[in-house]
Amino acid sequence: MDGMSPDTSPRHDWSLAEIEALFNLPFMDLVARAHAVHAANHDPNAVQISTLLSIKTGGCPEDCAYCPQAQRYHTGVEAQKLMDVDDVLERARAARAAGASRFCMGAAWRGPKDRDIPKVAEMIREVKALGMETCATLGLLGEGHAQALKDAGLDYYNHNIDTSPDFYGEIIHTREFQDRLDTLEGIRAAGLKTCCGGIVGMGETRAQRAGLLQALANLPEHPQSVPINQLVPVPGTPLADADRIDPFEFVRTIAVARIVMPKSIVRLSAGRQQMSDEMQALCFFAGAGSIFMGEKLLTTGNPDVAHDHALFARLDLHPMQGGDEAQEGGTVHAAVLECLDAGTA
Q1: Which of 64, 209, 258, 272 is labelled catalytic?
Q2: Could you give the 3-state DSSP secondary structure of residue 193?
Q3: Which of 298, 293, 227 is nearest to 60 (CA)?
Q4: Which of 33, 252, 258, 267 is the catalytic position?
Q5: Is 67 a catalytic residue?
Q6: What is the pTM of this model?
Q7: Which long-range contacts (CB under 8 A, 24 or more apart) does 239-245 make?
Q8: What is the pLDDT of residues 130-157, one digit of tens each?
């Protein structure tokens, strides 16, 4: 099998040339193929809804060129201390009421200190008790941290690789690409699900976007969630004047991610506020099966809840229930698969 038909098992040996060939398919062929993969592995009309809360904002010592929370950049983001558990719970209850099934907690750290873990673990336990899935993104984890978070009930740990290995050094200098991979290995070893993706529109080439997806697809285990972020340029960061990625190129990236990681949930993540409803609809058709809902993603804007509910109604989409795995096994007519295979082989 060629690894690209809708019912193929996940592969971990993608070549860069294969992924670039997918990017270079005629747009309509690529999107149709990606939708077939999506429908064969997921309910194409269900979207998993997450809410992201910054539990500790600003003051990060890293130098990620896209990030307004880096203390070395002048972006107007003030450093704040770790939130109180009760305040986090209030936000989690509101997210649940708005339809979110997963609550993600992010902290602007290079990595948590030992003293931070018990308080974050308490947040996880309390949010889990609300019946929600839990996710955390805290940076590099120290010895025993992943296991402590797992013991508290954490479901997912987010740790993005951000971009391709050969472009990474243009964006970040305070940690190596291998540091990212080592953290992911520790997360998997603790039995946590991984949420791992990247950012496009940072000045990378199409080949480097292909390299990002190759690095993700060739991990020992595909991330269960794969957030694809569109850069939101923030004044004061080195990427403040970055040119916006072409919308159709972004859709291509979603489509290729869907094909090379067929079982993963691809999340339409940061940058949705800058996307038209029509662009988002194309992304959903091309394989995006998750969004963040809420007015903010850490420190950048996001469409409001009412707008998202209205968009779902217009597209006949419904929130995913019961976690990622409950939605696997969508169906698509066999004749459609045969046509797609013949037309895009």
Answers
A1: 64
A2: strand
A3: 298
A4: 267
A5: yes
A6: 0.86
A7: 239/65, 239/66, 239/202, 239/203, 242/201, 242/202, 242/203, 243/201, 243/203, 244/201, 244/274, 245/200, 245/201
A8: 999 999 999 999 899 999 999 999 999 9
